Amino acid sequence: SAKDMSKFAFQFEKAYINGQWVDADNKATIAVTNPATGELIGTVPNMGATETRRAIEAANKALPGWRSKTAKERARILRNWFDLIMKNQDALAQLMTAEQGKPLAESKGEIAYGASFIEWFGEEAKRLYGETIPGHASDKRLIVIKQAIGVCAAITPWNFPSAMITRKVGPALAAGCTIVLKPASQTPFSALALCQLAEEAGIPPGVFSCVTGSATAIGGELSSNPIVKKLSFTGSTEIGKLLLAQCATTVKKVSMELGGNAPFIVFDDADIDLAVAGTIISKYRNAGQTCVCANRIMVQDSIYDIFVEKFAKAVSALKVGSGVEAGTVIGPLIDERALLKVEEQVNDAVKKGGKVVLGGKRHALGGSFYEPTVVSGATRDMLAFREETFGPLAPIFKFSSEAEAIEMANDTPFGLAAYFYSQNIGRIWRVAEALEYGMVGINEGLISNEVAPFGGVKESGLGREGSQHGIEDYLEMKYLCMGGI
Ligand code: ADP
Questions:
Q1: How far apart are CA 73 and CA 235, in angstroms?
Q2: H/E stretch holding 63
Q3: Dist. CA 374–CA 184, nearest whole Å
Q4: Do you know which Pfam families this protein is assigned to (predicted)?
Q5: What is the DSSP string of 2-58?
């Protein structure tokens, strides 16, 4: 209930604009529920374009002061923010599990992962070097400097309620930009808790605002207002394309982290037990609701049966339950719509000849719980081959040659993460180079961290987040040509 949330001691049920905790102009609210219980947690303001415009104008007003601080001063404040997040890791994790459903251990992990972007980019800010270029004429000197883009906007999803925010806000603030966030309506409390800690850390009013409410109204304003110079979005490819089109009218810079359809390939020369463990982590983290989750598990014919047997055995040991219960590995799906999508893909697979080895139906716990499911004999005509599942279904496809595996893996408009297991060094290089993906896990099922560039190719996105490259998305380079020397 709403009262129980007070134990987290964060400011709730108001949006955060220009350093103020505010309601919607018309006092309208939206409900936030716990996906494990269906219980109402609380409400947040249902804001629209007017409030968003106010946040953008405040960000514009705050920009000169923030941008003109030294990188070291900004880094100091970001470090405060990082420390406060880590100090409150347990409370933030409980809040996340309450609104998102993931197991508490995963929530704790995400808080640390999310905070790491703030620490990393604060440190990177001090090393945003420019260039000097040997001139094209003896009386000229050529220089490149890097400057903050200006006012930015971020739209983030519910599957990582904290880390998808810090991965954008961290580099934006480190670079000297100001930013307006629209968090997912399913998980706004994690976002507002970050705002509260940002305020405490000394981030000035207007530098980071959070507007809750209507996705179309807020998203429409963020993507069309000429003050906003850059939009960073993480979510579905469908909405990403819409936002790209909206941003085209004012030629905004964009970063897009969109959908994936990750192949997870196990070659006959792989360490099978390692591959089984990697598949479990990649497939079932966050109940399958990540854009880098294994979507299509492809196993070479000679080891197919033994892999399916070992994998199903490992999956059957995964405990399903509420995220707050000790030992839970798989929580509920975010909502009924997510459940229906998994159900549709499982039914489609069965209709087309797939064999349910494990699971295959809604979980006895009810609500949006679904049984971890393994389907063997998966084929290319199935929905699960074409579409991102975003749920606990593991379809296992069979291939016979390396060339066939690569061709199958690339047979999709998506190109975010791919994984493969092999012990053959020649094959490892050939396959790594042939996969049309932005990220490749090799004998590894978990690849996200703050020091590496996260992002996709093809219809999976534009730009990279994390790493030394992630901050470049928030910088413009300016070329200075000095003559008459
Ligand atoms: P999902 O289906 O995983 O929820 P979406 O792409 O629909 O992914 O949502 C990701 C984020 O985009 C959320 O914050 C959501 O509120 C926002 N969003 C959804 N529709 C729009 C839209 N038309 N304009 C702007 N943002 C949107």
A1: 32
A2: helix 49-67
A3: 30
A4: Aldedh
A5: TGGGGGG----SSEEETTEEE--TT--EEEEE-TTT--EEEEEE-B-HHHHHHHHHH
The reply to whether ligand 1 has any atom less than 6 angstroms from the CB of 216 is: yes
Instruction: Give CA–CA dist 458/260, Å, rounded.
Output: 10
DSSP annotation of 199: H
Distance CA 147, CA 477 (A): 6
Are 46 and 24 a contacting pair, CB within 8 Å?
yes
Nearest CA-CA partner of 97 in 39, 45, 47: 39
CA of 289 to the centre of ligand 1 (A): 15
431 CB near ligand 1 (under 6 Å): no
Q: Please give the DSSP secondary-structure letter assigned to residue 302.
A: G
Ligand 1 proximity of 418 Cβ (cutoff 6 Å): no
Query: Hey, is 373 helix, strand or coil?
Result: strand
* pLDDT score of 31 more than 80: yes
Distance CA 368, CA 375 (A): 20
The answer, yes or no, to whether ipTM is higher than 0.85 is: yes
**Among 16, 293, 56, which residue's Cα sits nearest to residue 153?**
56
- Nearest-CA neighbor of 227 among 3, 402, 433, 63? 63
| Helices then strands, each counted (H, E), the chain | 15, 22
For the chain, give the percent of residues with pLDDT over 90.
Answer: 98
Q: How far apart are CA 35 and CA 337, in angstroms?
A: 12
CB atoms within 10 A of CB 64: 9
Q: Give the residue, out of 155, 286, 334, with the most ligand 1 atoms within 8 A of its beta carbon, to mutate for a pocket test.
A: 155
Tokens at residue 394, please? 């593991």
Prediction pTM value: 0.97
445/442 Cα distance (integer angstroms): 8
Cβ atoms 182, 155 nearer than 8 A: yes
- Sequence-separated (6 or more) residues with CB below 8 Å from residue 172: 152, 154, 178, 179, 232, 474
Pocket test for ligand 1, best of 239, 293, 339 (most atoms within 8 A of CB): 239
* Torsion sign (Cα): 299, 301, 307, 311: positive
How many angstroms separate the alpha carbon of residue 50 from the centre of ligand 1? 19
Residue-wise pLDDT tens digits, 357-375: 999 999 999 999 999 999 9
